[in-house]
Amino acid sequence: MSVTGSASAGRPxxxxxxxxxxxxxxxxxxxxxxxxxxxAVFFTMxxxxxxxxxxxxxxxxxxxxxxxxxxxxxxxxxxxxQLMLATNALFGVGAYGLAIxxxxxxxxxxxxxxxxxxxxxxxxxxxxxMVFRLTGHLLGLVTLAxxxxxxxxxxxxxxxxxxxGIGVGPSLSIGGAVFSGGExxxxxxxxxxxxxxxxxxxxxxxxxxxxxxxxVEANEAAxxxxxxxxxxxxxxxxxxxxxxxxxxxxLYANYVGVVGAxxxxxxxxxxxxxxAVVGGLRSIWGAPFGVLGVVVFQAALQTxxxxxxxxxxxxxxxxxxxxxxxxxxxxxxxxxxxxxDGLARMIASWSPEANxxxxxxxxxxxxxxxxxxLGEPSTGAVAxxxxxxxxxxxxxxxxxxxxxxxxxxxxxxxxxxxxxxxxTALDGASLELQAGEVVGLIGPNxxxxxxxxxxxxxxxxxxxxxxRLGGTDVTGMAPYxxxxxxxxxxxxxxxxxxDMSVLENVMVxxxxxxxxxxxxxxxxxxxxxxxxxxxxxxxxHALERVGMERYAARAAGTLPYGQxxxxxxxxxxxxxxxxxxxxxxxxxxxxxxxxxxxxxxxxLASESLGIxxxxxxxxxxxxxxxxxxxxxxxxxxLTALPDEVRKDETVIASYxxxxxxxxxxxxxxxxxxxxxxxxxxxxxxA
Amino acid sequence: xxxxxLVRASMMDWMPTFFATGIGQLPETLASGIVNGCIYALxxxxxxxxxxxxxxINFAVGDFLMAGAMLTLLFAGPNGDPHRLPLAVAxxxxxxxxTALGGLLELLVIHxxxxxxxxxxxxxxxxxxxxxxxxxxxxxxxxxxxxxxFTSGPALSIVGVLLPRQDLWIVGSTLIVMGLLWYGxxxxxxxxxxxxxxxxxxxxxxxxxxxxxxxxxxxxxGALLAAFAGAILVPVTYAxxxxxxxxxxxxxVAWILGGAESPVGAVAGGIGFGVLEAVVLGYSPASVANxxxxxxxxxxxxxxxxxxxxxxxxxxxxxx
Amino acid sequence: xxxxxxxxxxxxxxxxxVAYGAVRAVRGVSLALRQAECLGVVGANxxxxxxxxxxxxxxxxxxxxxxxxxxxxIGGLKVEETVRRxxxxxxxxxxxxxSMSVRDNLLLGSYVLGRERKVPQQxxxxxxxxPTLARRREQRAGTLSGxxxxxxxxxxxxxxxxxxxxxxxxxLGLAPVVVDAVVDALRExxxxxxxxxxxxxxxxxxMTLADRLLVMEQGVVVRQTSADAVLDEEALVAAYLGGPTDxxxxxxxxxxxxxxxxxxxxxxx
Lengths: 686, 320, 269
Fold this sequence. Notes:
Chain A is of the alpha/beta class and 686 residues long. A six-stranded mixed sheet of chain A has the order 10-11-12-7-13-14, sandwiched between helices. In chain A, strands 6-5-8-9 form a four-stranded antiparallel sheet, with helices on one face. In chain A, strands 1-4 form a two-stranded antiparallel sheet. Chain A is 58% helix and 10% strand. Chain B has 320 residues and is an all-alpha fold. Chain B has helices spanning 18-21, 26-54, 61-76, 87-110, 118-140, 165-187, 189-199, 201-206, 211-233, 244-257, 263-283, 286-289, 294-307, 309-318, and strands at 156-158, 161-163. In chain B, a hairpin with a 2-residue loop joins strand 1 (156-158) and strand 2. The longest helix of chain B has 29 residues, at 26-54. At the A-B interface, helix 5, helix 8, helix 12, helix 13 and helix 14 of A face helix 5, helix 10, helix 13 and helix 14 of B.
């Protein structure tokens, strides 16, 4: 089935939508351009480096190996947002592993390299599982400590030869060709390894795994609600980086012949961090140029520095690193890659086609777009979804099977209570939701509505109470696991992944519809291509449902607010949930946008989705809700039909307050509404 | 590879004092642990002040300490230099200069990007660390320097425990500095405002405190504490340009061990860690003790895995 | 009371908009607050009341419009600066320095006065107004009861001798009896001639305090009346809980005609 066909079929005269197949424009040849550029610069290093006068081929080897290290940093810090500062340890494992295995086991260097890489990968996985629960800067310091410990071990242990180091044994060879340190042929081995690493990193990043990584980096809570297990993907990125770093270490060992601890100080990690920052943390292709820039700068400083100030040349590098790191962060936070992006945009803007396309998008009136959105797609989408459902039988049938046997209710919460440090945010709230039903959740400020949502979706652990989803007890499960049971949600302050395209955002939502892992991404196995197609189709249909398919290519962060709301709903829908939680979906929408939202919610409910909705826009909520549950100060006041709620005395009292003049009377009646427990709300955000 | 930068002096040049005197009996071991712990405590409080006010982990804390040590050496002169300044003046001058440097670096480097995430700011402080190290490397080279004790004379014997005079200086002056800090935080207008920025930055703005300025003040105060620690440490150890990072890591351990919340906790964590380190290394077989810093640093990882709630709690609540 | 309209405006807000990213929480609100007047702003949650205060005092940079205090433009200034000009916000949920003593909280309230002589005098006056706080001087603010915390927040706001005091949701999370005490304190302030802007979700409470009321809904002022006017209960319920309401009121809301160019209400007298 052709994606583009299905998208425009049945809608004559519909918009010139960019086909999804083009948006996901990844082909096996896509990385070749970047690869050719980097290859051209790298392979010619033996020619142009000596010509500059202050560089040699040895610096070329440094560039290639450090490129590999920097790629690991970009993967983990840039794409995953995790500050892992143990690069020197991983580099050392590769180097010492090769040397030790050759010395003690007599292993051939290729085998030594492989075994070391496996060891580094396993070590990284172990460390990752241990430390990835820590938040950003703590992680940085802990991993730095690991790096420092590794250095001390390298320097002290008899196994690594202590301070005097350890010899490496035979050189790498293929057939009769021997690649040993001092020769140019070895440089080419390193260059090939660096280019392969580039492709590996690039393939990992442009894939289902890569999207999950970027989603975790942008917003872990939102990623989790799409079913992404953050720790898993962080570990995948770290292990990939570790294996690449270890291979670089093994090559380095072969290059120098004798491995000494002084090559694995923490400074290596700091240098790599610097190179990754200079290249641009968010770009795979920036890394080689960042490394190149730093190495050239350093060599120039050492060669010409002493002419200016008569000091030992090697003393310049440390301060040079610091100054460059700070200047790049202050003046060019995107690194060299942002210059590349700028150039690419400039070139793109010269091409007439792109110009036309840009103009088309920018001149579209939002109002018109939204009209179109609500007109056909919400009806057309129903057909579209059922058409695509068989494409991924695994998940759909799976979840449907669970819900099948006469479901009592889709979602059931009983007596959910939630306390934070003495404050009871939620006190015994309950909820029942049937398929095709919309339940509104309202209440004054601080009533506990969002806390209730967070308890349902797993973002907050309830202190007591039970949450059942399609009959399964999901109380206290991690959000990504609850998502697997068919619950999707949106957030009060739209939590999109702003740097990703609209389509990619929604593809993350469909994450669970596919299975392709890191290996099939890296090697571009058939499963990868198949899953990408499935995810793109799912995403496109979800976008059609909310009328946003024409914006698929836009960066989500650049959309106007109302449309971001829609994209967020599409992301939730892409998971094909049974239960949808909408947290203030109409906030910040104009009256007409809110009306469109109401219609969308109705349409979704008519497809037998169960929807719970927190909303302050009462007109919108009362319009769409079948039943309304009122919370006040964490307690449930009542659940009733919208009209009953509107007339209910206690509800009115809880909103408007009781008259100050008849407090004595009110305090008896209002006791339920404003319990004593609410008197001491502790400080927030201290 | 990558030039001579990778060939560096070992970072283990800076060793706990008891290594020089050999592994003695328990009281001496404990005493030297407390002495080292005072240094860790000062550095941990420095980390804490900066973190509580700004949310930045100051990776350069050890390097500010190193700068304090180096400048004290520069002004007081290595042993036997006739042109030296009086010791008190040298220490004061060193501390003042490093304090100003801390504030200046905050203004130049951190301030323009203070709205960025914590990781970004941490990387910036790594840059500051490199600049300070490099700045020390250029005039001093990779040589090591020592300074005579503040007062000369044989070790004093207190209830049967032999204590070098400089150890008493370290413990005594740490106590005084902590006392001054407490006084400043609870009795002065600037101190209260600084605490207000920690406790509730929004409320601080609402009463008219220019929180941004207190970022600078916090960095300056952090640098002051670290520099002072460096100045009192330099007579019992050798100062090298790269002594900072191990101290940063240990200060960090102390900070976490102490609960990462209050200065009292940081001091307790610092002294606790110093004692722990002394006992563990003092009573391990040589084959383990040879690994020096690696042993206590392993404790960091253990401490964090056990205590990870300490720091993450507030974030967990505000998130989502 | 009748002279209220003749006194010059102390705080003037014109066409103020507040946005968080792409969300417009306040859309073109105007109001004028006269010397010694008490203006109440009511509305359901999400109506933009708190954002309005945040925009006026500079806690959030307004997206548009102007704010002036005693005819000096203060729009766009940060809150640290507007406090110095005499515009003080007592924030929602009080925002005390929980781990510090009551006295330190109060002294920090006078931070902008520096070491002026006024500080001890003002401390005395404030403790006179709130005798409970005087009794609990050394207690940590976080250990006070909810009502005492609210009083401390108001007292802290008064410490800098402001021209205008803005109080956000003084009754939020308080038991009725405690609300009583807070309301009494605010009434006393009003009697002493303090110029007040009070945001309150509890309409009936706001009615007993304020001279005039603004009703906000979805970021705009949908109506304004004098407080003693008999409020149309049904319309109020509609503003809070939605539902079948007279479409007239709504349309009025959209044309922004509820600004304060003509602040006196046409209904009461």
